[in-house]
Known about the structure:
By secondary structure, the first copy, chain A, is an alpha/beta fold.
Amino acid sequence: MDLHQELAEMGARAVAAARQLALLAPRRKNTILQAMADELDARRARLMQANNEDMQAGKDAGLSSAMLDRLCLTDSRIADMAKSLRDVAGLKDPIGARISRWLRPNGLEIVKIRVPIGVIGIIYEARPNVTSDAAALCFKASNAVILRGGKEAIRSNTAIVEAIQAGGEKKGLPPDSIQLVRTTERQAVTELVRLEDYIDLIIPRGGETLIRAVVENARVPVIKHYKGVCHTYVDESADHEMALRIIENAKCQRPGVCNAMETLLVHEAIAAEFLPKVAQRLQPLGVELRGDPAARQIVPAMKEATEADWYAEYLALILAVRVVPSVQAAIEHVNTYGSQHSDAIVAAAEPAQKAFTQEVNSATVYINASTRFTDGGEFGMGAEIGISTDKLHARGPMGLEELTTYKYVIYGKGQIRE
Amino acid sequence: MDLHQELAEMGARAVAAARQLALLAPRRKNTILQAMADELDARRARLMQANNEDMQAGKDAGLSSAMLDRLCLTDSRIADMAKSLRDVAGLKDPIGARISRWLRPNGLEIVKIRVPIGVIGIIYEARPNVTSDAAALCFKASNAVILRGGKEAIRSNTAIVEAIQAGGEKKGLPPDSIQLVRTTERQAVTELVRLEDYIDLIIPRGGETLIRAVVENARVPVIKHYKGVCHTYVDESADHEMALRIIENAKCQRPGVCNAMETLLVHEAIAAEFLPKVAQRLQPLGVELRGDPAARQIVPAMKEATEADWYAEYLALILAVRVVPSVQAAIEHVNTYGSQHSDAIVAAAEPAQKAFTQEVNSATVYINASTRFTDGGEFGMGAEIGISTDKLHARGPMGLEELTTYKYVIYGKGQIRE
Lengths: 418, 418
């Protein structure tokens, strides 16, 4: 059987599972999630064994230590995966809710009801915990899921999917609700994202190269973010101490993630006073500063920023710094070079706050807070399937509701159209 | 300048316009819409002249009389276009509304706000009124629009866009808010739908061939429906007279549109009594019936339905008829052969109603009403930019709200992530 046919058959089985999933009662789904968690706990030794094989193969293949760390399962990481499944069981069920309802003059009652999307494909990289997290969220929203993880984690992912599917089936999980693409051929991604007859949505999670490859080939709708080039703009009206705390947090608390700050914009009226404080605060933490000419005139120790720096997602302890003449210039910079992910203004003046939040064209815009809060957990969604910088369907952190769609049910008494 | 470059420059100008549009106050937008309508009225002679040239060229090219009718502008059709613009002015402005708002334990206030999508591309066929209707709806939701109508209507569409852009500019419409692709080359569609750096959403309106061509080439997200294969299922518990009225309306009131019924499903327990009534009601109206073997045994005058009939969107006075053993079999038929557009059950029994509405996987599901109600106006949206059978972002009739997205604005007091 060729690859296309194999994946199409997985798709057809997922569609059949999705029809059954749409009928499961909320309590049944939660019982199934608990059983999945129990099975992960029960199979800990088997999971560790599979992961050891992946780790050994990874070392042989010369994976970086950062990559090996992401790949590695430990007792506590497996316990965390099981806990996440139980946490998802505790979240409010989104399916079946009435979103709105209205009556027409002819007596028709129109009800807009939240329903599952259907079949969701998740394409991701080396972290095995994404396997169980994504499966749990898709399932809780009554979607079937097809998972395609990185080839480095194939043995771990196979063991995880077997555990949660088997655990769930004990309590009535429809077969094929959670499927893993087992071939590690690259071509599988290309085939998967073209299965528009079976898959309703693709969510790619990973680096820009992976996501561009998905979009380039996709026929199925994709929700994604390419990268996070996040800004903090410090207005002339800012509280300096607050701004420094936010800058340090946004840059240094976890520099390798998409909501970390990459570029600092400072109003020219305070630059001479404020930029030396920034340098004093960040240099001891190992941050490399790259400034425009105006910034380097104030802090000569800064390296020179080039045009490429304004577009850069460093994911490292590097910060681009630019002096701007006004909040309008800051907005213009963010809308030109940013990735519409997360951008912050630190300002006491309301007109500057208002202009920034109205005109910055990003999924999440912060006033006097760190960009690091762009996260499903921090937003109170309980969990997150990803972050979107798209404009359709879902923007910003995506929780359970973003894994649903709606349909209209119209109740009549024999009405016909005149 | 080559075609790609020309369209990319239109896209860049549309992005600039969209930024200005996002800042227009609701009252300003309504004044602009009124001025657009006034200018259409004032230029009636010029529009008629342009349309006469299109009509002459269409006759020379041998367009069908149905096509020529769609293309033709009359005094009253121009007056209707102007009236539609004024009606859109009267609709509630969707932009800036707070969709939701919540407080986090750390004091962060998260506000979800409705914002424009940005730049929308509309690809359509011969009807010139789509030009002004689509432009008005996109504008009211503060989006820039790039229009690509059928080549048969190019002179009419050019005159309409010139009129509404010029009328609007008198009251402050940003230049390039409403642009028309003036080349009639087919390749322009392919180029347009790949402009992901400039266009946020493509809405194709037309036949399945047009829409498949768009999806095949698109990098920009597309919202669409391919076709409307709509069903009416008559349950054993149905009121026969109600069912006959609904069937006649859904099939005959306007057979050429996407929400007209194409297939009738009848429960076997009532088929022997009910199907002769259907034939008696529809045959005098010129409807050709095509039945499965069970239906033809009851009404031998029916033609034979083949497998292809269950998938067919006739858009004509033809009706496929099938006898089914249960509501479950009806659901299975609809989910297998339908297009997830609009499907109805006629039934008095609640269990049948409930199963049908829960399990039929369509954008709009009717109980005891005609499928012909799937329409923005009939839903009370005031106007409609199209109908979606997709599952992301928008399903069913799409009004103004469906032309918007949201962003999160987060108000802090210096919060950082721990």
